[in-house]
């Protein structure tokens, strides 16, 4: 599912951000930029948490104006608080199927399969507090799998993980992306994360977003904004 | 943050928002209605009623002295607790919350049993050839107010101490700061920030003190406005005088609340255990001795009266109390539980409404919900009396009026816990809930309830306990055989039936703390 940002203008207090670009369907694009540059703001707008000042966002050609976040074809993984602490792992995943959590046998099976897919088989009864950071990320990813939304937005959900676990999670995202033909946007401030799984990358700086180009090419010949950031 | 974010979650349920505004309108009309009622019913053509100005003077005097004594003496106590580590320190700090829940009359009886004419302190004085203590009048009122507010202020200052980053203490140690240097650079800035708020809070609480003044004071020399309102309405049946006195009381409380709001931040009812600082300046032997004496003396002062009540009251309670006690107990439980349920219900609908959006209207609503703080119980009681009188017999509605007043007064307390809890839940899980398309009841159950359940329980518990032990407007309205347990206790005290009074005191003590414990903790165990 392609993502079109058609001359959008976002405003949060004093901060302004404009964007006019498209992310191709079934690709992974990294949004690179310094903290405070507005990377997360873009994702929040696509997910429907922030109103546009002007312009429009289209997913698969459909205008998202007036579509509430829960009904957009989008799943977002946040930096933190992706899981409800009082619900078990299986319940947290089950929310992706039915908010009421009244799951029938088939649906419980689907939850099990999703947990197995992210290598968490057998941990369904645990509470989030009993998981490592990497495992918690996997639970959120398992839920994203069940929701079957074609767009996956990652707002640095693995930022708190160590390098090895982070790479592992990124590889898992990459596999899932290919399997389900997802359109993935990955916010990161680490060039190596972008290089690892994103075929395309955009730079967020100076209140705007550059059009995505092949990641390798971007790093080979960085534009001035990225050069300043990379140092 | 972006507005849609909050709105979408709950505003899908318009009924809830309407309910919130209705709850707010009820509170505001009881509060404002009372002020208007007393303003218009008072007959101002003949000036103030006799004794009004001396009541006003005494109200301000006793509240001012109480606040000064509490603040001055709470500083060394909280300092000792902040820099000494000993077995039972945490429990002691927790127990400092006990007097807040103690029914006023129970405290009065407890303190009388220690400091009264036949108490051990007087006994010792007589033994050494002095006069026994006579604590009725101003000294007694100050003593009880000190008993109630010392722990409150101590906890506030303790919070201030634990808010000083431990790096600052380490820095001070590295720079070898001691004595006055240490005080002026670390402690004084904190005290200067905390003490004015603490002073005003105690002042405000003491201006509305009724039960204490009724039992320890009275007479032309020791009558507060609350007591004067009670006497005007109950004994003289002079509605105009009561209304005039109530109007004065509105001014006193209004200015105090305004001052509190201007001076202090949001930590007025802070309930920290107070982290312990390993400080470099507490090494001197004299400091150690002084701290020990302070802690032991304060503990004895705060807990001996309570223990004494249990010792004298339990035998009377076990050997049997008159039937009127059990009827009054039933009425008190009814009042306490109804007030508790209503307070939680109204606070919840108001808090969730304030949570849905952040604009001028909700800012106003939040301020309006704190309005009852500026209206004392007897002002509200007088106001309700004036409003009900044309339509029904206020005396027949004694319990209903008591429940209304308790609920209005406890809602601001409940909101202090609920509003931040709702905000925290929204900040953490608002987006997640939205993106998972949770709304209405499911959003409440999954995203909000786990975060707010503890403050809800705490509010319910504290309202029930306070309503159980409160002797306030019920005294204004109740018929001789229709009162609550505290009112019955007051009547026993007034007729010098000390054994029965002690038995009722023990019963009140057990019921207040039992209710608090059961609602705040006990239910949790059942989960």
Structural description of this entry:
- The complex is a heterodimer of chains A (about 230) and B (about 525).
- By secondary structure, chain A is α/β, with parallel strands linked by helices.
- Chain A is built from 8 helices and 11 strands.
- Chain A has helices at about 40-45, 90-95, 105-115, 135-145, 165-180, 190-195, 215-220, 225-230, and strands at about 5-10, 15-25, 30, 55-60, 60-65, 75, 150-155, 185-190, 200-205, 210, 215.
- Chain A is globular and about 55 Å long.
- Residues about 1-10 and about 265-275 of chain B have low confidence and may be disordered.
- Classes of the chains: A alpha/beta (about 230), B mainly alpha (about 525).
- At the A-B interface, strand 6 of A face helix 1, helix 18 and helix 19 of B.
Task: Give keywords.
heterodimer; A: 231 residues; alpha/beta; seven-stranded mixed sheet; four-stranded antiparallel sheet; 8 helices; globular; B: 527 residues; mainly alpha; 22 helices; 77% helix
Q: What's the arrangement of secondary structure elements?
A:
The complex is a heterodimer of chains A (231) and B (527).
Chain A: E1 3-12, E2 15-23, E3 28-32, H1 39-47, E4 54-59, E5 62-63, E6 74-77, H2 89-94, H3 105-117, H4 133-147, E7 151-155, H5 163-180, E8 183-188, H6 191-197, E9 200-205, E10 208-209, E11 213-214, H7 215-220, H8 224-230
Parallel strand pairs in A: 3-8, 3-9, 6-7, 7-8
Antiparallel strand pairs in A: 1-2, 1-4, 4-5, 9-10, 9-11
Helix pairs in contact in A: 3-4, 4-5
Chain B: H1 3-11, H2 14-41, H3 52-83, H4 89-95, H5 98-101, H6 104-115, H7 120-127, H8 138-163, H9 166-174, H10 179-207, H11 211-216, H12 225-234, H13 239-263, H14 285-318, H15 323-356, H16 360-369, H17 377-388, H18 398-435, H19 440-469, H20 474-477, H21 485-494, H22 498-525
Helix pairs in contact in B: 1-15, 1-18, 2-13, 2-15, 2-17, 3-8, 3-10, 3-14, 6-8, 6-14, 8-10, 10-13, 12-13, 12-17, 13-17, 14-22, 15-18, 15-19, 17-18, 18-19, 19-22, 21-22
